[in-house]
C-alpha cells in the first residue's frame, strides 16, 4: 500500500478533500476530547482544528503533502505509551493496514476515551451501481474490508452510526460520485480511489468504457433516474465508536 500512495499522493491531494458533513459527524463522536491521535492520517483531512492532533502516517509522500507535521509510523505499532491521548481516530484507512485487528487494538491502547473509525461495510458492496460495470470490485472489496461488528469486538463494545453520502460529497472516495457518474471516468479520480487504482487495468478500461457509452446515450440516466431525485444515499459507510475505557 505504501508504494500505491507514493504514486497517487498528488491525486489524493486534489481529489480527497474534507467533506464538511462527514467532518462534523467525526468531530461530534470525539466529544470532549482535547488530544487526539489520527492514525493512517494521510494528508490531514478530518483532523479537527480545535483539537490537539497527533498524526501518524507511514508514507513519506503523504507526510510531505501535509500542512501540519506527522509521525511516520504504522498502526500496528504506535510509538506511544498506554493512555497517551483522550481519543483516537482513523478515517477510511483500516482496509490498508497489514493487520487491522492489531491496529485497532493499538488505537484502544493509546486512547483513554472514544476510538472513532470511519469505515466501509463490504456487506453493502452492491448498493453502489458502479458494480454493474466493474463486478471485479466485489471480490476485491470482500477480501479487504472488515465489518463494523468485528471492530466492536476488538474495541470491547460501542456503537455504529450510519454515514449517508451527499450527492455533492467533496471527498472523492469510491462512493462519493454515486450521482455524478462521469467523475469515475476521470483518470485522476481513479488514482485517488485505491480500489480503482489497483483494479486490473483491462477490467477497469472495459467497465468504464461501457459506462462512458451509457452516459453518452442516456442509458445510465434512464436506469438510475431514481437516484437523480436523491440528495444523499446510504452506501454502507459507517462510523464505529468504541466506548470509553
What share of the residues lie within helices?
A: 25-40%
Global geometry:
globular
- Secondary structural class: alpha/beta
**What is the CATH C level class, in words?**
Alpha Beta
Q: What is the number of beta strands? A: 9
Strand proportion:
15-25%
* Low-confidence parts: none
Computed Rg: 18 Å
Q: Count of helices?
A: 10
CATH architectural category: 3-Layer(aba) Sandwich
CATH topology: Rossmann fold
- The tally of structural domains comes to 1
Provide the residue-averaged pLDDT.
94
**How do the helices and strands follow one another from N- to C-terminus?**
HHEEHEEHEHHEEHHHHEE
Strand order of the largest sheet: 3-2-1-4-5-9-6
- CATH-assigned homologous superfamily: Vaccinia Virus protein VP39
Distance between the termini: 32 Å
Major sheet details: 7 strands, mixed
Short précis:
This protein has 245 residues and is α/β, with parallel strands linked by helices. The chain has one domain: Rossmann fold, CATH 3.40.50.
Q: How would you portray this structure in words?
A:
The protein has 245 residues and is of the alpha/beta class. It has a single domain (2-242), classed as Vaccinia Virus protein VP39 (Rossmann fold, 3-Layer(aba) Sandwich). Helix content is 36%, strand content 16%. It has ten helices and nine strands. It has helices at 2-15, 20-30, 60-64, 100-110, 136-142, 148-155, 187-191, 194-198, 201-216, 219-223; strands at residues 35-39, 52-57, 71-72, 87-91, 115-120, 158-162, 165-166, 232-233, 237-242. The strands form two sheets. The protein has a seven-stranded mixed sheet, with helices on both faces. Strand 2 (52-57), helix 3 (60-64) and strand 3 form a beta-alpha-beta unit. The longest helix has 16 residues, at 201-216. The two termini are 32 Å apart. 43% of the residues are buried. The model has no long low-confidence stretch (mean pLDDT 94).
Amino acid at each position: 500500500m505504501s508504494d500505491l500512495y507514493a504514486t497517487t499522493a498528488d491525486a489524493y491531494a486534489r481529489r480527497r478533500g474534507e467533506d464538511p458533513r462527514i467532518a462534523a459527524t467525526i468531530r461530534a463522536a470525539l466529544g470532549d476530547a482535547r488530544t487526539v491521535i489520527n492514525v493512517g492520517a494521510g494528508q490531514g483531512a478530518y483532523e479537527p482544528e480545535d483539537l490537539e492532533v497527533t498524526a501518524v502516517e507511514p508514507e513519506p509522500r503523504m507526510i510531505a503533502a501535509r500542512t501540519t507535521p506527522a509521525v511516520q509510523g504504522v498502526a500496528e505499532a504506535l510509538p506511544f505509551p498506554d493512555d497517551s491521548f483522550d481519543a483516537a481516530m482513523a478515517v477510511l484507512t483500516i482496509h490498508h493496514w497489514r493487520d487491522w485487528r492489531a491496529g485497532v487494538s493499538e488505537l484502544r491502547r493509546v486512547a483513554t476515551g472514544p476510538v472513532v473509525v470511519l469505515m466501509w461495510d463490504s456487506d453493502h458492496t452492491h448498493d453502489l451501481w458502479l458494480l454493474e460495470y466493474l463486478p471485479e470490485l466485489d471480490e476485491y472489496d470482500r477480501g479487504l474490508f472488515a465489518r463494523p461488528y468485528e471492530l466492536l469486538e476488538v474495541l470491547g463494545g460501542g456503537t455504529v452510526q450510519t454515514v449517508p453520502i451527499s450527492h455533492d460529497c467533496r471527498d472523492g472516495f469510491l462512493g462519493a460520485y454515486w450521482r455524478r457518474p462521469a467523475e469515475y471516468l476521470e483518470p485522476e479520480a481513479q488514482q485517488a480511489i485505491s480500489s480503482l487504482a489497483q483494479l486490473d487495468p483491462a477490467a477497469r478500461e472495459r467497465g468504464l468504457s461501457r459506462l462512458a457509452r451509457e452516459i453518452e446515450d442516456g442509458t445510465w440516466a434512464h436506469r438510475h433516474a431514481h437516484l437523480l431525485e436523491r440528495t444523499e444515499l446510504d452506501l454502507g459507510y459507517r462510523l464505529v465508536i468504541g466506548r470509553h475505557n
